[in-house]
Amino acid sequence: MAGSSFGNIFRITTWGESHGAGVGVVVDGCPAGLSLSEEDIQVYLNRRKPGQSRFSTPRKEDDCVEILSGIFEGKTTGTPISLLVRNTSQRSRDYSEIASYYRPGHADYTFDAKYGFRDYRGGGRSSGRETIGRVAAGAIAARLLNEVGISLCAYTRSIGPVAIDSFDPEECDRNPLCMPDAQAAERAGAYLRELMKEKNSSGGVVECVVQGLPAGLGDPVFEKLDANLAKAILSIGAVKGFEMGDGMAAAQATGLANNDSFVPGPNGTVTKATNHAGGVLGGISDGSPLIFRAAVKPTSSIAASQQTVNQSGEPITISVKGRHDPVIVPRAVVVVECMAALVLADALLSAMTCRMEYVKKIWQK
Amino acid sequence: MAGSSFGNIFRITTWGESHGAGVGVVVDGCPAGLSLSEEDIQVYLNRRKPGQSRFSTPRKEDDCVEILSGIFEGKTTGTPISLLVRNTSQRSRDYSEIASYYRPGHADYTFDAKYGFRDYRGGGRSSGRETIGRVAAGAIAARLLNEVGISLCAYTRSIGPVAIDSFDPEECDRNPLCMPDAQAAERAGAYLRELMKEKNSSGGVVECVVQGLPAGLGDPVFEKLDANLAKAILSIGAVKGFEMGDGMAAAQATGLANNDSFVPGPNGTVTKATNHAGGVLGGISDGSPLIFRAAVKPTSSIAASQQTVNQSGEPITISVKGRHDPVIVPRAVVVVECMAALVLADALLSAMTCRMEYVKKIWQK
Amino acid sequence: MAGSSFGNIFRITTWGESHGAGVGVVVDGCPAGLSLSEEDIQVYLNRRKPGQSRFSTPRKEDDCVEILSGIFEGKTTGTPISLLVRNTSQRSRDYSEIASYYRPGHADYTFDAKYGFRDYRGGGRSSGRETIGRVAAGAIAARLLNEVGISLCAYTRSIGPVAIDSFDPEECDRNPLCMPDAQAAERAGAYLRELMKEKNSSGGVVECVVQGLPAGLGDPVFEKLDANLAKAILSIGAVKGFEMGDGMAAAQATGLANNDSFVPGPNGTVTKATNHAGGVLGGISDGSPLIFRAAVKPTSSIAASQQTVNQSGEPITISVKGRHDPVIVPRAVVVVECMAALVLADALLSAMTCRMEYVKKIWQK
Amino acid sequence: MAGSSFGNIFRITTWGESHGAGVGVVVDGCPAGLSLSEEDIQVYLNRRKPGQSRFSTPRKEDDCVEILSGIFEGKTTGTPISLLVRNTSQRSRDYSEIASYYRPGHADYTFDAKYGFRDYRGGGRSSGRETIGRVAAGAIAARLLNEVGISLCAYTRSIGPVAIDSFDPEECDRNPLCMPDAQAAERAGAYLRELMKEKNSSGGVVECVVQGLPAGLGDPVFEKLDANLAKAILSIGAVKGFEMGDGMAAAQATGLANNDSFVPGPNGTVTKATNHAGGVLGGISDGSPLIFRAAVKPTSSIAASQQTVNQSGEPITISVKGRHDPVIVPRAVVVVECMAALVLADALLSAMTCRMEYVKKIWQK
Fold this sequence. Notes:
Chains A, B, C, D: Pathway: Metabolic intermediate biosynthesis; chorismate biosynthesis; chorismate from D-erythrose 4-phosphate and phosphoenolpyruvate: step 7/7. Four copies of one chain form a homotetramer. Chain A is α+β, with helices and mostly antiparallel strands and 365 residues long. In chain A, 28% of the residues lie in helices and 21% in strands. The first copy, chain A, has nine helices and 18 strands. In chain A, strands 1-2-3-7-4 form a five-stranded antiparallel sheet, with helices on one face. A five-stranded antiparallel sheet of chain A has the order 9-8-10-16-11. A two-stranded antiparallel sheet of chain A has the order 5-6. In chain A, helix 1 (38-48) crosses helix 4, helix 4 (131-146) crosses helix 8 (329-351) and helix 6 (225-234) runs antiparallel to helix 8 (329-351). The longest helix of chain A is centred in the C-terminal third of the chain and has 23 residues, at 329-351. Chain A starts with a strand and ends with a helix. The mean pLDDT of chain A is 94. The interface between A and B is large, with 117 and 117 residues.
């Protein structure tokens, strides 16, 4: 199945494995006339780079993006934008061991079950490097959204049991865990150091807030804005849960507590007194900030010894070698933000075609 | 945007509003040669019918399905199966009041924001009746899955604060709340009676388990099995959260606790000692039971008085008239099960094309 | 495969067989606010009705359309428009003979080869009645296009060897062959009468001209306007050839003769001195009238005796019973026009999303 | 609009302009386990290379393909295959002149009309170089088809008024016009030399024959095999007409002459006495060879002087500079063959999902 594309009008197609020639993405359907440079994209790629703190892998990956097509004189032309990031740090390392057994929590077994064999080097297509294409494409989507006043901000909400108590967006850039609360970041750091001693790892929660979104994006049935966000977020490896607004807690709430009252907004607009819904009603944005969360499971690659089977089905004990992040949440933050940007750019373009009034605005002579 | 279709190979298109001539669905891409009758579908529709207990609305809706095409001599022909359910209980009720304001928790405001106006009668396209098409189509998908040994079972896991403690699948049919635990059902019933006195409503959680799924379904990147399930489930009105396996709890777990060890299974197969993952690794089914949950928000239509604004933006106090379910979870159960069946039928057909070995099995002379 | 949908943004899904309960179509993605009644659609359906002349079958088919959803207070709501036409003239006729052999020129054999069995009654899904859904949907697309000044006109260009010499659009409605040349229509009528004596049939050419199309519709690569028109037209049963502008003749032309010079148009516009291209350059409309042709093969069902095989593979001689049109070209005219309308409506909506300038026009606050 | 993808299950996405960094394609949905090397693809790319005869441009373009992903140990892995061809012969040539006016027969004007501006260097996305991605992808599709006994052969059927009289497939490789008739090739060569003296160009017809195709590929309604072939072929720049089997001539035929009788074939199979249909009935392959033709217009870039307008709309006289092929038909041959291969690979995979019998063959334990 052709499963590497995402989006309808603003559509991306990612490709590439951990140990092939490179990874990349083709962005098709981006409107003409958006100013764009490699630097605009590189800024986002740098946010997902490893090797920036003791909690991320010390691998050196430059991940320099090259724009291969679709830009002319600094602007998008409306034709596909092809982006390439070469794999530079391919080690001559021996992968024969990893080839012979199934790592718990990884897709080794399921790739064999699906395709009959697998590219076992570094996770192949299931490698975290696959997200490079998402982030590079998401950077373009975010730029498009910015042009009409929409901005996204994702951050680490919790790591293991340690959650934020306060919110200072600028703090996100100051601590390696991307938490908007310095004290929580410190506690989370201590928690991770303990786990590292045990050769263990931690999960966490990424939260994303979108400001400036007009009411009216998303569709009432299958293409609900929240449904597409859920797919986008669950399509990121290691994500196990998705919450819109109050999320799972809504299941324990009552209607009186959960309903958001509409109230008069500034300049004759309509707004909501609360935002339990997280900015979407009936699948369509309601003009309030969009709020959603992703639960990220603990890093599967741990140095502690684990039970598994080899390809002959015999039980063995392994410990996953190499340096791995004790938590992938901070690196997932920009991926979550970018996937959301892709969903919203697509919804924004799509909503342009939903009224005869708009059709006439563009086409009537 | 054309947002009323779901699925790629096994694809459905639903249509219809609460107060139009009817609701329906076209199922396209169903393989030829599946035996199918109206009765097979009606059984599923009956499960979502209201009026079956004191906790669901006493509206009389027969919801009799008519197969309009795609079946010949009791079998699918491979061409589109069109299903129609006429709206029979259209009341002459006056909707002019509801037309004039925005009900909290409903899509009234967002429809106006998106389309410029709305069919305000009974929620229009956002009505719960829209799920009839999903359930009718899902019944066909479930039948297809059954043919190769795959079965689905959804049930109410919790209502408000009351969760199940035990699991007896047959109990689901015995209590009106569709809970597999008779005692929990009784406690939940008491809880709901209290809320009804307050003209209030409750949310809850639906859980779904799939047995017999082969390993190898789903795709590694955007078409991950869990990503498509998340979209399917969040596309159901009132769902605010989705969890795969351990779900949100995985964010608080450690790698050692969360990783599922592979162990030798019967007859040389590979299986897992635990199933924190919920049956999917790297987006592909791993042969364990699939387990996921949906958080359903409390019924938005409550008789208690609420604040909102009218279409002129002026604040008003309303109380939603009519009889409404104090909880929609029991009726959502079959919808969740059917949406999952649609995702799985599509993934099953899709996975037939992923290996040259399969291509040769079908086409080599 | 889900093969009964057409279009991306303005997307239709047709369903139904000759002898099932009915035929129909779901139109998804039509913008909200287009005024639409059953009468608007019925006018188009009446154009494809048989029984209007001696050259079309005397079957009585009322083909009354019912709008099941998507319209409120006389306007489209932006949600799916479901249209139903009941099959009223189902004869109790015995189809057991037709079930046993393969009619030359028909899809009996290929349906068996594909699906393993077939609904043999009246051609099943391959019946000409399948076009009812296309025409009903096309009527809506045409209405949308009219709102921004685009109009379509298809007609019979030739029947067998008899081609038109002059062009009077009003004449199309005056003769049963839908030819814009009364004298040609008379000659073609004489030709057909001769064929009918021989229990034979004739092919012909349908031509379609689109006026008022803005330059800039269509995409430069796979979604070229002419590529989508070609698919649309070849998807009509019995069509064997497609020509854009000069079509096949362009292959015999030279560059000097075939290139259309650009010349200054009225009010500072750019136009072309000639229109060999048929209104499209590089897959994108150029502002000139769109002109294309469809070659329709002779009616396959003929009363003359023919050789074929039965389902056991034994050679037999048959003559197809029932009354059949000696030429289907006049009835194909409205189908061609409607398929073109569907392609253009989709391209019109799609092109709204191709420039940042348009994005800002709709979304900038 | 995202218009650079083609196919559903076997889907390609092309990107790249004449004067950007390169051109390429992502092939998604190719089954795992197909052996594939860069050499397999290069062989096809070499067939479309210019500079091989006096009738094609003397530009030096190496067009060496690099496989960036999707292959492991010489076999496809089932994940996207990304192919890159760098643009090596980018000239420092001054394009300011071409930037200022609209070349007749080219997409300069329509790109401006659509996007508001254009990459004017060498035709940008409308350059013939865009076909590199199609050919590279088509090479993979052809390899897949070969594995189950399906082979394609395209060739030049006519150039201007000179058509082939005989058919010797091996002759195609011996003359630079790719004609299967040495004498016709000689006459066509003489015709082209005359046109070159006049700074003029010629069109022609490409024909393609597919052998070994099983009956049963293609869908009965919109995804007819011939409809998808028509789209594929019309999506190639410069193609103005498409014929399936007898094509346009079918419009002048009678039913008795045009119907192909079914006759008993070898080993109890069913075959046809003639093949006017070109191997497809009701949109589904009938087991006979598939035969179709594409009409290619004359090269638009001619050195003879022509009238046009500049971007200010003023009339000017131009003559297109640079060396251009007097006929592009021979280079289009491999592009036609490759587009057909893409359609057929997609149809082959799609048809695997159309019967419950096949579903059980793959999935029943």
